Amino acid sequence: MMYTELSPKQLKSMLWWAWDDTRNYDAIVCDGSVRSGKTMSMTIGFVLWSMKNFHAENFAFCGKTIDSLKRNVITPMQKWLEGIVKIKVNLSRNYLDIKMCGHMNRYYFFGGKDESSYQLIQGITLAGVLLDEVALMPRSFVEQALARCSVTGSKLWFNCNPDSSEHWFYKEWIQKCSEKNTLHLHFTMDDNFSLSDEVKNRYNRLYSGVFYDRYIKGLWVLAEGLVYGTVFDKNRHVIKSYDNSNAADYYISIDYGTLNPCSMGLWAIERDKAVRIKEYYYDGRTRGLQKTDEEYYQALEQLADGYPIRHVIIDPSAASFITTIKRHGKFSVRKANNSVIDGIRNTMTLLENDRILICECCQDILREFSLYRWDDKKSHEKDTVIKENDHAMDDMRYFVNSVMGRILKEFCRNGGKE
Ligand SMILES: Nc1ncnc2c1ncn2[C@@H]1O[C@H](COP(=O)(O)OP(=O)(O)OP(=O)(O)O)[C@@H](O)[C@H]1O
Ligand SMILES: [Mg+2]
Question: Band of the pLDDT at 271, cuts 50, 70, 90?
Fold first, then answer.
């Protein structure tokens, strides 16, 4: 592994436990921008600290899930520490042993969102824990992990990208860091000397709005105002008409509703972008008449008329309508991945990079773009959207989550948050 020179902040996050002015802290929190070098310097520091001070003890590496932990920490760590310590990994049993200077310790892997991890960590005694991406873990898991650190001299190592300013981790650990005798270091991409200007610029273009503030500037900010307010621009994203000679595939995405509106979008995919070319939108409440599943199915057929539809992507909770579509045997149906915030973030990334365009005839999605809002009531710990004017917004999100993954990956290489 070729190291670029470590920045002063990286060095501090690695060696604080050995330096006179910081060694008495019980914990360290590194937060800030994506790719700023937090995970790498802390992981090396955590291993050096634990190996120097302990023998025959247990430690924990925690990630959002075991898979993301292995990908972001465990696998790269073996390269980072090559030639410095001896590591023996038992991937199937989720631990590794490290030997250095006559000491040997064991490091278990836990995923905050993995059900089994929660049970396993309850019984264990630890001398230290590193929580990578701690803001993505359930609070109960983090507190359980901390409660296990009962060995004298144990220390806690946290890192994360910022989230909402109402997030429990921000309130409990960052705002109260001195009360908790915790060293807080704030990272930006300039703290990672291995990133070229070109790479930094590429990351800058990946995010917009609240996600730019969090992932690029590294700030804890509340999501407020219009969801797509800072990114959606009629001059850039709306086209008069669509010439389908370059279209490779067609999809229809559906947000189903009977009392609430039902929205369907017809999308054409070109190599690296998607165009919403037509839509269907029906609001049973304002029209004073609800439609049956069979009537909606007729609307779907009409929208698809003349286009070879690869898949119909639909709201996973629309059980009755899914059955109706399947019964007709004409379309291949896929239930959408319904994770709201990831979907919004990915949609923003695509809009920011002009990978989603809307035909002028799609008036309902254009209307919703100018109305769809974050719910900024302070009582919400997590980002929340107001559940109004969100029907075409939801069908677009289902489409992005289910179909646009490849395109997102292509230009987010190593960059986007998964
Ligand atoms: N001093 C260095 N020399 C060489 N490569 C480095 C150095 N510091 C960081 N890197 C590399 O830069 C990339 C980002 O570092 P790292 O994963 O530690 O950042 P991060 O702050 O944890 O990012 P994220 O918030 O996205 O998880 C990694 O590929 C890492 O190997
Ligand atoms: Mg990281």
Answer: confident
The number of the ligand nearest the C-alpha atom of 75 reads 1
**In the Cβ-directed half-sphere of 285, how many Cα atoms lie within 13 Å?**
6
Strand partners, 357: 275
Mark residue 225 as left, alpha or beta (left: phi above 0; alpha: psi -120 to 50; beta: remaining): left
**Protein residue with least CA distance to atom 16, ligand 1:** 37
User: Are residue 248 and residue 275 in the same domain, yes or no?
Assistant: yes
Question: Which residue owns the Cα nearest ligand 1 atom 8?
Answer: 37
The amino acid at residue 391 is H
pTM of the model: 0.90
Pocket lined around ligand 1, Cβ cut-off 6 Å: 3-4, 6, 34-40, 161, 187, 192-194
- Residue 238 shares a structural domain with residue 202: no
Ligand 1 atom at shortest distance from the alpha carbon of 417: 26
- Looking at the DSSP assignment, which residues form a beta bridge with residue 250? 268, 309
Do residues 267 and 140 both lie within one domain? no
Q: Which atom of ligand 1 is nearest to the CA of 215?
A: 25
For residue 40, report the distance from its CA to the centre of ligand 1, in Å.
5
Q: Residue 296 Cα, ligand 2 centroid: separation in angstroms?
A: 46
> Is residue 60's pLDDT more than 70?
yes
- What domain range includes position 306? 234-412
Taking the CA of residue 72 as reference, the ligand 1 atom at the shortest distance is: 17
Gap between the Cα atoms of 42 and 54, Å rounded? 17
Q: How far is the CA of 163 from the centre of ligand 1 (A)?
A: 19
Calculate how far, in angstroms, residue 11's C-alpha sits from the geometric centre of ligand 1: 13
CATH code for the domain of 148: 3.40.50.300
CA of 91 to the centre of ligand 2 (A): 20
Rounded distance, CA 212 to CA 195, Å?
18
Is the same domain home to 90 and 21?
A: yes
Give the ligand 1 atom nearest the CA of 30.
21
150-198 pLDDT tens trace: 999 999 999 999 999 999 999 999 999 999 999 999 999 999 999 999 9
Whether 106 and 247 share a structural domain: no
The torsion angle over the Cα atoms of residues 267, 268, 273 and 279, rounded to 10 degrees, is: -30
Residue 415 pLDDT greater than 60, yes or no: no
Same domain, residue pair 202 and 245: no
Supply the Cα-derived Rg of the chain in whole angstroms. 25
Does 103 fall in a domain? yes
Average pLDDT on 296-323 reads: 97
Model pLDDT, residue 270: 93
